[in-house]
Design goal:
Blueprint lengths: L1 E6 L4 H13 L5 E9 L7 H28 L6 E8 L2 H9 L5 E7 L4 H6 L3 H8 L4 E5 L9 E6 L7 H14 L2 E7 L8 H15 L5 E4 L4 H11 L4 E6 L4 H6 L3 H8 L4 E5 L1
Parallel strand pairs: 1-2, 1-4, 2-3, 4-5, 6-7, 6-9, 7-8, 9-10
Antiparallel strand pairs: 5-10
Helix pairs in contact: 5-10
Length: about 270
């Protein structure tokens, strides 16, 4: 059975992502785990130990209350919802729980941030996108759930993609009967041989059981190019592959998936290779 981790701080943003997840998986058999992480300053004093226990109890109470709220909001949901409070940051919580499970996905909310905020504050969302081992759905704060009928996959024409990496995308296409659009952002400094392009396309067709036609985008601002592609093709979910040595890393000077997670207005699925 698939397990879907739903980190929440009970904000409107995170609750919107949870609602999206319950709608998205309503026709599949999954186990939802609501995760709330709590934290207090480290100290060996008995006072801080007491504070930690107070925070833990509050987390348990808040999760139980939220679970009831979800059951009332989604009365026809047949899937199991369980609660998990974890001491520490949310990324630690996700990694800790994921290690003990197979077939895991994560659904998190993304709140748009300015470039300055990204630099000085950072983002839990972007860290989860970059560091989590499981596939991660990123749901922008203003997105209202709609059926996923058109899916876009961003590729970089690197080969040796692991078949397991693509399985979540393959499952999405089958379960939702969705149409796949594959695109590549052209770069003047990265001339990829036609032989390499054909090799990657044939490999993708085999692993996804799809006929693939790659649409090439040439834009001065790559992020703007992605957004134009999404809107012009009416894409319901964008899929990117987070690789340790990615063409997108050099193209954007930092993680492509991380930037997209903070700036897209379309649900994003990040796969890890």
């Amino acid at each position: 059975m698939k397990t879907v981790l739903l980190p929440t701080d009970f904000s409107t943003n995170s609750k919107n992502a949870v609602n999206w997840a319950l709608n998205f998986y309503q026709s599949e058999q999954v186990k939802f785990i609501l995760i709330h992480s709590y934290f207090s300053p480290q100290s060996g004093s008995s006072a801080v130990v007491s504070i930690n226990e107070i925070l833990r109890k509050q987390a348990v109470e808040d999760l139980i209350k939220y679970k009831k709220e979800l059951i009332d909001t989604f009365p026809n949901n047949k899937n199991e919802i369980v609660c998990k409070e974890v001491y520490g940051d949310v990324l630690h919580a996700i990694k800790f729980i994921s290690e003990e499970l197979d077939n895991v996905a994560v659904v998190i909310g993304a709140k748009g941030m300015s470039a300055m905020e990204e630099i000085f504050i950072g983002s839990n969302t972007s860290e989860i996108v970059k560091e989590a081992d499981a596939p991660v759905f990123v749901i922008p704060e203003n997105v209202v759930y709609k059926e996923v009928e058109k899916v876009a996959l961003a590729i970089d024409f690197q080969d040796n993609l692991n078949a397991n990496t693509l399985n979540p995308l393959k499952g999405l296409l089958v379960n939702k009967k969705a149409v796949l659009r594959v695109f590549y952002i052209e770069d003047e400094d990265a001339n990829i041989a036609e032989e390499q392009q054909n090799k990657v396309i044939i490999d993708l067709e085999s692993k996804l059981n799809q006929n693939i036609e790659v649409i090439k985008i040439n834009e001065e601002d790559p992020l703007s190019g992605v957004q134009k592609f999404i809107h012009s093709h009416k894409i319901d979910c964008l899929v990117t592959i987070n690789r340790k040595k990615s063409f997108f890393e050099s193209l954007f000077h930092k993680s492509f998936s991380k930037q997209i997670a903070l700036h897209t207005d379309t649900p994003l699925l990040v796969l890890h290779d």
